[in-house]
Automatic annotation (TrEMBL):
Pfam families: TctC. It comes from the Bacteria. This is Tripartite tricarboxylate transporter substrate binding protein. Belongs to the UPF0065 (bug) family. Gene3D superfamilies: Bordetella uptake gene, domain 1, Periplasmic binding protein-like II. It comes from Rhodoplanes tepidamans (Rhodoplanes cryptolactis).
Length: 346
């Protein structure tokens, strides 16, 4: 699989309608560089007959990028056509997602993205360059990423209930780290605060790796973030796992209880969905979904995915669409709990 060079493009963090239109125009003007553009959809009978591009709305190296490359390698082996990963970061994933939303609906341009790309950003940004509810044909739920609540031993916090008790005893004293305003870790913490009835201070960072440094040092009290990058710190004893964000315990940390055992109904985990532009022929969408299902059942693929904290899922286009609909409600509630304002992004 041949990786493509990232195509950097900056987007204002507080888009107005005019700015959002400008962003979309800029995205469209650059689509020719990576083979996007208008045109009639190709037929499904002989798909694929040209290279496929999987757009990742992040820089290389993260969980979504790793999944794209695993999928791309297997799809390339199956189809005999080049599958290229194109990294288009920026705008809280809006740059990459907008590029795919406006691409030719023929199955040759796909998006693999997190909740922000499909359901979350419509509740955060005052205007969007595409409609998240109608812009895509869902193909498959590729993976789920359990979140884990962790703290440093130096905090003296030993359980979820202990954290809640300490927070209620001294409102505003504890704080929680996130990978940035609007990130899944921010929304997870905000929803936890709301459901627990506590007041702790949000401390946004420019990524999980930066927040982990301060967590280990005890400069921030806790976080609820993706298990993958945190797991080595749990293994080493530098951080204590208090709870997971899933309904059931997670395989690699089976003794850590779900947060829902203390806060019934709490469930908020990140995930990645593969999708095509709206209007892509149903036969192509179904074919890609079947191939993804087969790939996700391969033992070597599952092993690679679990190594960085993701769980292979799969699902038909209809099942994936229903999943996105259910997640829309869940994440809207989390965004409301976070009370994010446009000026927060300045």
């Amino acid at each position: 699989m041949r990786p493509a060079a990232p195509l950097p493009h900056r987007v204002p963090r507080t888009p107005t309608r005019r700015r959002a239109a400008a962003v979309l125009s800029a995205v469209l003007s650059g689509l020719a560089l990576v083979g996007f553009g208008p045109g009639a959809p190709a037929g499904a009978a002989d798909f694929p007959r040209q290279p496929i591009q999987i757009v990742v709305p992040f820089t290389p190296g993260g969980n979504t990028d790793l999944l794209a490359r695993i999928l791309g390698e297997k799809l390339q082996a199956k189809f005999g056509e080049t599958v290229t990963v194109v990294n288009r970061p920026g705008g809280g994933t809006n740059i990459g997602a907008a590029a795919v939303a406006s691409a030719r609906p023929d199955g040759y341009t796909l998006l693999i993205g997190p909740p922000a790309s499909y359901v979350v950003n419509q509740f955060i940004y005052p205007s969007m360059p595409f409609n998240q509810d109608t812009a895509f044909e869902p193909i498959s739920l590729i993976a789920k990423f359990p979140n884990v609540m962790v703290t440093a031993p130096s905090t003296g916090i030993t359980s979820i209930q202990d954290l809640i008790t300490k927070a209620k005893a001294d409102p505003g004293k504890l704080n929680y780290a996130s990978a940035g305003i609007g990130a899944a870790s921010h929304l997870s913490g905000a929803l936890f605060n709301q459901m627990a009835g506590i007041d702790t201070v949000h401390v946004p960072y420019k990524g999980t790796s930066q927040s982990l440094q301060d967590l280990v040092a005890g400069r921030v009290s806790y976080t609820i973030d993706n298990l993958g990058p945190i797991y080595p710190f749990i293994q080493s004893g530098q951080l204590i796992a208090l709870g997971v964000s899933t309904k059931e315990p997670v395989g690699i940390i089976p003794k850590v209880p779900p947060i829902a055992t203390v806060l019934p109904g709490y469930e908020l985990s990140s995930w990645n969905v593969l999708a095509a532009p709206a209007g892509t022929p149903k036969e192509i969408v179904a074919l890609l979904s079947r191939e993804c299902a087969a790939i996700l059942k391969m033992p070597d693929v599952a092993e690679k995915m679990r190594a960085f904290g993701s769980e292979p899922v799969g699902g038909t286009p209809a099942e994936t669409a229903a999943f996105l609909k259910s997640e829309r409600t869940r994440w809207e509630a989390a965004v409301k709990a976070a009370r994010i304002k446009p000026e927060d992004f300045k």
